[in-house]
Structure formats: C-alpha cells, structure tokens
Design a protein that fits this description.
The structure is a homodimer of 391-residue chains. Chain A is of the alpha+beta class and 391 residues long. Chain A has helices at residues 4-13, 152-160, 199-209, 224-233, 254-260, 295-314, and strands at residues 20-24, 37-38, 48-49, 53-56, 67-73, 87-91, 103-106, 110-113, 116-119, 130-131, 142-144, 165-169, 174-179, 183-184, 195-196, 216-220, 239-243, 264-268, 272-273, 279-283, 286-291, 321-325, 330-331, 337-344, 349-351, 368-372, 378-379, 384-389. A 6-stranded mixed β-sheet of chain A has the order 7-4-6-5-9-8, with no helix packed on it. Chain A has a 6-stranded mixed β-sheet with strand order 16-13-17-21-20-18, with helices on both faces. In chain A, strands 19, 22, 24, 25, 26 and 28 form a 6-stranded mixed β-sheet that branches. In chain A, helix 1 (4-13) crosses helix 6 (295-314).
C-alpha cells in the first residue's frame, strides 16, 4: 500500500505523451497549442482608419487651409487614387487609408462645408487615428506560442489573422468498463439484490466536463472470461477505466484479469479513504485505472488520479487546487489520506456530511474535495487544508 | 450614454425567464435543476453488506458459539432463506443481507474452519457493516433541490436512484449576425480593403464554452435590406447578437434597421472602453445585443453583458468575479469604465499590453478582464480592483 503522493508520482512517471493533431480552429477550443502559430498575413492587412473621419497627408498639408474632400472610402472598399496636398477623402472606421494619406481627423473635429473641411483638432499629429499595417501582428511572426490554452478570444484572434487550423495536444481515447453482477442499466426494473448502474454514467459525465467523449462504455458481469474479453477489446485506448471487482473478495476478478491480459501492475492500493483498493497499471502505451466500485470512491479517484493522467496527456490543467481554512474542527484516524466532499464559501471550506463511500447525496452538491493529511488526526477550525476543486 | 451599472441593471430587468425542459440525465450536465428531483426508490434498495464477510443475526447469536456457514450470497444475487440462531452466510460487499440477519462481520475478523466461523471482532455491534435500506435516499424524498447545478457526481447520484430524466432551465437559442462589407470568410483570399471575419467565430467559441450551440450564424453586407432581412429572420431566438454597424457613421445601419424591425431600444452607448457604442434592445421576448465591430469590444461586451443575460436565462453563474491587487500602477482618463485584458497571478492581477479595441493579441492570452472604475484616474500597485474571470 503506497501513499497518495507516491501514487501521483507513479501516474506522472508512467504517463503517456499526447499525440499532436491538427484541428479546425473551432474544434480546438480549450486545447493546448502543440506548436507555435505563425501569422499568415499582416494584421491589419493595410493602413486602416481607426475612426469615421477624413484621411489626408499631414506632411503635405499647410496646417491652415481647408482640405477639399475628394470622394469617400467606405469600409470594405478601397481607393488607389493618390491624394494631393490639401486634399482629403471621407473615410470610415476600418477602411484603408488611400495612397498619399497618412492621418485621419475625426468627423466630430471638422467643420464640413460643401466639399471642403476645416480641421478643428488642435492636437492632430502625423499618423493620428490610423492603425498601421501589421501593427497587431506581422506576417511570419509568432501569433500564439506552443503551450497556450486556446480560449474563445484566442480563436477570434487567430481567425482574424487568417488561421483556420491549429496543431494541439490531442485528447485521450478513454474506455470505460463497469463490472458487477448486481448492475442494472437505467430504464430497466431492478429485481432483488440488484442496483442501478451509475458509475459509468458518472464517469461519462465527468469526461464530458473535460470535453472528452469516451470511445466505449461497457457493463460486464463478474465473470472472468467476460471481463478479460472486455479488457482486451479496449487495450488500444489511451486510458482504460474499470470500476468494481478490484478488492480482495472471491469475486474481485479485475486485477487477475488485467494480469492475464498482459497489463503490468504499477500499484494496487493507496493509503486513502475512500478508494483504498484502487489499481493502476500499464499495457504498452495504455494506462489502466481499476477503481473500487463504491460510487463515491469512483468519482473521488477519477478527480484525484484519472484527471491527473488526462492532464498529463493533454498538457492542460483542468481544476484548481487551493489552500482554504476549515469552517469547523474535524477529526479522523491517522494512517490514511482522506478525500472529503466539501463546499467552498467566500474564502473557506466546509466538510459536508454523508462521507461514506457508498453515499453520493452530499458529493452531488459538493464543489471540491478536501484533502486531509495521512498522518494528522485533528484539524481545527481555521486550519488551512488543500482543496481540489471539481467544478 | 449610461453607466456600466445601469446597463447591467437594465439587462437584468429586461431579462427573460428560461423555459423549463426535461432532458435525459447526461444531456443535463452543467444545467440548473428547475424542479426538485424526487427519489423513485429507496437507496440502497435493500439492506446491503458494506464488507466482504459473514452475515448473521446479532440478537440471536449467543456471543460465544461459532457460527455455521449456510452458503453464500454473491453481490447481485439474493437469498430468501431465513437464517436461524448461530447461523451465518458468506456475503460480499453490496450483496443483500438475507432475512433473519442484521449484522456482518468482516472476513478479516473471523477464523474460518470448514463450514463454521469464529467471530474475532470484539467491537462488533448490532447492525455493524450493514448499509440499511434507504439510508442514502428514501423513496419519495427530495434527492436534489431546484436550483442545484447538475455536476458529474450529481448525475451519478441520480442515475443510482433510478432517475433518467430531469427538468432543467433550458439554454437560450442564440443567433449571431456579423455585419460589414469588409468581412471575408476564413478560407477565402482577402483583397484590398477586406479583413477576415473573426467576430462571429469568437462568439461561437465563447458560446461553446458555455455549452451553447448557436442556432444561426450569418454574415451580412452593410446594406439596409440585407441587415433588416437577417434581423427579422432571427427575432424568434432568445438572444440575438449583432456585431458592427452600431456607431454613428453613415454606414452604421444596425440601430435603424433594428428599429424598423420593431426592436425596442433599451439603451445605446455605455460609458466604457472598449465597446462604447453597444446597443441593447428587446423584441417581444427576444433580447438584442448589437456590439461594436472591433474584435476586442465584441468579446469584452460578450463577457460583461451577453453572459449576464445568458446567466439570467439559465440561472447559472458561469464566471467568477474577484477583487485582486494590481501588480503595477495604472492611469486612465476619467469618465469611462475601462475593461482591460488581464492575467491573474497567484493572488494578484496584471494589466496586459495592447489594450486598443482592434487588438486581440494580448486578449488571446488573458484570463480575465480588469474593471477600472469610471471616475477614478490613478490606480496604485496593490490597489484592489474587480476582476471578471473569462476562463
């Protein structure tokens, strides 16, 4: 039986490196860039008016004459006619400055009369109200760096500089196998001794929260051949998660089945509560988590260990960890790290009732797991404790 | 021109109430429950062993005799045979306690010999290691309350008590219309005076982040009839977002087009930077946001105002707001609230460079907007400022 910190180190150490994949921009939302993104064009692609107003040449203007207005350039149009001294053109925000012009005066700062304007802006200077070509991003320049999380604004930014595909760290292919003779799928009747299967549904939801669609979800009976068949069918996934059958009872067939399928055990059992019997192994490049069947243990182990492996794979941090003061005293037995369902307040955290591993009623309204140190027994109100956020 | 706080109040005041819809459990992930969820069954549905061990009647046991083992109950099976005094049955975690039994002794705390066991657990008491029927949730009891965010664990919990559908506040139907003669769709060549359209793409990504798939995304030219047609086609949406054409230039046709389509103006212009020309209106039950076309203004207005309306609709809080100290002095002009691209550190926030409304290069790596008060001019390092998180 190993400690929580050792288990986490072993997961990282055995962690697999993500594939790099090229995705259409919108599909890459929330992914981490695996390569620098280089701007394909100058942005703005031309000297652009920043205002509705009049464009002219500052240098060629005598600073006192009215400017004669020689037509207009609507945003989206352009003019290739070169402006002469003391000439101006009506221009709009986003429109290209015509040849010969370098400065824009705002429409609110002129006196317009027929086809001439008088410039009233005393502070006007050369290049004023013009967004120079390439002033955001120059062609060939790195627009976003490898390792950057691609946010909605990042997507807008890249779209604006002509990028339609990006290379990101791929999401893992995840398979789920829930084992247990007692499990009945939702929508059916439960007869004596049976319960509704919920672990795979909770795991699917937790994966959806990370924008991962599992490649396979299967329910199998506590029968060796069936478990082995299900495992070997899914060993081409990046991460295989099993639930149930991982303890030492006569029908806990999962560890032996994994061994038969060639999975190499990395650890079995962590000094923790809930989820002590957790198993972690590896088959070639596939990570295998076999989680104890109690619903709270499944979800707790998912957030503490499986998310760690996924994070390592995608290079993305999914949940925050904080240190927060407890709202009440709490005592536990020494020798196990406790992961307790908690609810954060403005700047503190409360440990909820109903912590037993078969109960989910408080976990369902929790927003975090409160991590209580293996060796420590007594925690006082106000003691800072590590908190793993889960929403 | 109104203040930011007035604008937010007007959005809330004109906000529309969400429809309630019934969704399959997994599809309701991340939604807010619109009705209490009542447990359809007792959970556990029977008295359940919490351990691998032996079940027996504590009361009918003479506390010294060995117990004779009368068969076994595998998890998923059951036995209707009543145990007699000093009899036990081999039982596994999750299996139903047979009639006549009420207590389980762990397998590690017995001496097993042929078909008899000697109980070695000195602390054993009546009901020990048994999870009573209904001890998590009783049939007819409220399992989760209206207003609760449905988390992955919540989904696992409800699945376990036999719930397959829930009533939640629906997500809004959102339509997007990007206006501008200068806009070219990604994948095409941009000719002189044109730019790549990115506002609608950024908005779609931002909606995806909220798990909302817009019902329509359209690009239209700066032509009155086209804008009016596009608007009237989308007035059955819950929220209509337009970009561009909302200022006072000759080609800013959106406010007039909205009026022609029967949209009632609630406000036009907010004392803010960026996004001053923002328009907000209402048509029957449809909220209409017309955002200025500069990319940074679009995204900033989305996070500050559109998300507020969506939040009101779905009853869900999407992003945190915090008060954090500035890492550096900052000065601004008084009279406008500034929304500045920021990046949070461990416990502070930095204002990024490149704040102009046509630039997205720093916004793309920002994780928040720093809100600087309308009236204030000078901010010192260490001053606490409101921060709207956006990731």
């Amino acid at each position: 039986m190993i400690q929580v910190s050792e288990a986490k180190e072993l997961i990282i150490k055995n962690g697999i490196t993500s594939r790099i994949e090229e995705l259409p921009l919108l599909e890459a939302l929330g992914c981490i860039l695996a390569r620098d993104v280089t701007a394909g064009i100058d942005t703005p692609p031309f000297h652009q008016s920043a205002m509705d107003g009049y464009a002219f040449s500052y240098e060629n203007w005598d600073k006192k004459s009215n400017l004669s207005v020689e037509g207009e350039i609507q945003t989206g149009n352009y003019s290739s006619e070169r402006l002469k001294a003391n000439q101006a053109v009506r221009i709009f925000t986003g429109a290209p400055i015509p040849p010969g012009a370098d400065t824009v005066v705002m429409q609110e700062k002129v006196l317009a009369d027929n086809n001439a304007i008088k410039v009233l802006d005393e502070n006007i200077s050369e290049g004023g109200n013009v967004r120079p070509k390439g002033s955001q991003t120059k062609k060939g320049e790195i627009a976003l760096k490898k390792g950057q999380l691609l946010t909605p604004v990042g997507i807008s930014y890249l779209a604006g500089i002509g990028i339609s595909k990006v290379s990101v760290f791929a999401k893992p292919r995840v398979s789920i196998i829930a084992t247990g003779k007692e499990l009945v799928q939702a929508g059916n009747e439960i007869s004596e001794g049976k319960i509704f299967e919920s672990n795979s549904i909770g795991l699917v939801a937790a994966l959806h929260q990370l924008n991962i669609q599992p490649v396979s979800v299967e329910l199998v009976d506590d029968v060796e051949e069936e478990i082995e068949q299900a495992i070997s069918n899914q060993l081409q996934s990046d991460i295989l998660i099993l639930t149930g059958g991982v303890s030492v009872g006569d029908y806990d067939l999962v560890p032996a089945s994994l061994e038969k399928c060639g999975v190499h055990k990395v650890f079995h059992k962590i000094k923790q509560k809930p989820g002590k019997p957790i198993y972690f192994g590896k088959y070639q490049q596939t990570l295998v988590f076999a989680l104890p069947g109690n619903p709270a243990a499944v979800m707790s182990c998912f957030y503490e260990y499986v998310v760690l492996a996924i994070s390592h794979f995608t290079q993305k941090k999914y949940y925050k960890t904080l240190d927060l003061p407890l709202t009440k005293d709490f005592s536990k037995k020494p020798g196990l790290t406790y992961f307790l369902k908690g609810k954060t307040g403005e700047a503190d955290v409360s440990i909820l009732d109903s912590q037993l591993s078969y109960l989910l009623n408080s976990f369902a309204v929790a927003d975090c797991l409160v991590v209580l140190d293996e060796e420590k027994e007594h925690f006082k109100k106000g003691d800072l404790v590590p908190v793993s956020m889960i929403v």
